[in-house]
Design goal:
The protein is an alpha+beta fold. It has one domain (about 65-240): Nuclear Transport Factor 2, Chain: A, CATH 3.10.450.40. It is built from six helices and eight strands, in the order ααααββββααββββ. It has helices at about 5-30, 40-55, 65-75, 80-90, 160-175, 180-185; strands at about 95-105, 125-130, 140-145, 150-155, 190-200, 205-215, 220-225, 230-240. Strands 4-3-2-1-5-6-7-8 form an eight-stranded antiparallel sheet. Strand 7 (about 220-225) and strand 8 (about 230-240) form a beta hairpin. The longest helix has 27 residues, at about 5-30. The termini are far apart.
């Protein structure tokens, strides 16, 4: 085939393609009374994608982790709050003061549900409390988180003289009550208090460590509250 014939055929093919494109364009632009195209343009696709990303439907919700499911099960089943359970524990041992309290599953002894049955199963919520007398002698008290009754009470026989002294010193330094410490933490994070414990901050003052579980995300935030003045010193979010 000569170069002239190839050029002529190429021009003819180009004309056919141009005509087809023109007809397609006319078909798309006409039809003020006709049906709209079923194929979305780029802007519409982008808008649909944005709406889908913001869709709060359960099918698009992030799956809860094992620890989060366990927290959800425990908190949802609890009927007696930590304050009432703490008062019950203190009344069980005359002259005692709360040192620590934590929500756990009575079936496995785990605290805060982090060592539970994997979530979704039946749980037995209990408050595991430690109270101590002025000389630092500790007692372990278990309070049913549904009925509010004491189900176990025993002296901590594992303490030695040094342990008792450390506990007594912490209690003496705690000018802020656990209730006020929990309130200070709650001012930073809404949720359910699942643990309050008197501890020594690393190289710092004695603190109340307050655990708060957020409903919805079921993440746990731990606040270190200065036991001397009630200021929040540090917070850590456990999203697992």
């Amino acid at each position: 085939m000569t170069r002239g014939n190839r050029a002529a055929r190429a021009r003819a093919a180009g004309a056919v393609c141009a005509a087809a494109a023109s007809l397609a364009l006319l078909g798309a632009c006409s039809g003020g009374s006709g049906a709209a195209s079923s194929t979305p343009d780029g802007a519409e696709r982008t808008e649909r994608a944005a709406r889908a990303a913001d869709d709060p439907s359960p099918s698009r919700s992030r799956e809860l982790s094992e620890d989060q499911r366990e927290r959800k099960d425990l908190v949802s089943a609890t009927e007696v709050g930590w304050e009432k359970a703490a008062r019950t524990a203190e009344k069980k041992v005359s002259g005692s003061t709360l040192v620590e309290i934590e929500l756990g599953d009575g079936d496995d002894g785990g605290g805060d549900g982090d060592d539970g049955d994997g979530g979704g199963g039946k749980v037995t919520p209990v408050w595991e409390a430690e109270v101590a007398t002025e000389d630092g002698t500790s007692h372990d008290i278990r309070v049913d988180a549904v009925s509010g009754k004491v189900t176990r009470a025993e002296k901590d026989d594992g303490q030695d003289a040094d342990d008792r002294k450390k506990t007594a010193d912490r209690l003496a330094q705690a000018k802020v009550t656990p209730v006020k410490a929990a309130a200070a933490a709650a001012g930073h994070q809404k949720g359910t208090v699942t643990g309050v414990s008197l501890d020594d901050a690393d190289g710092g003052p004695t603190v109340w460590a307050v655990d708060i579980v957020s409903r919805g995300t079921w993440a746990k935030t731990t606040f270190d509250v200065d036991a001397g003045n009630g200021r929040v010193l540090h917070e850590h979010v456990d999203r697992d």
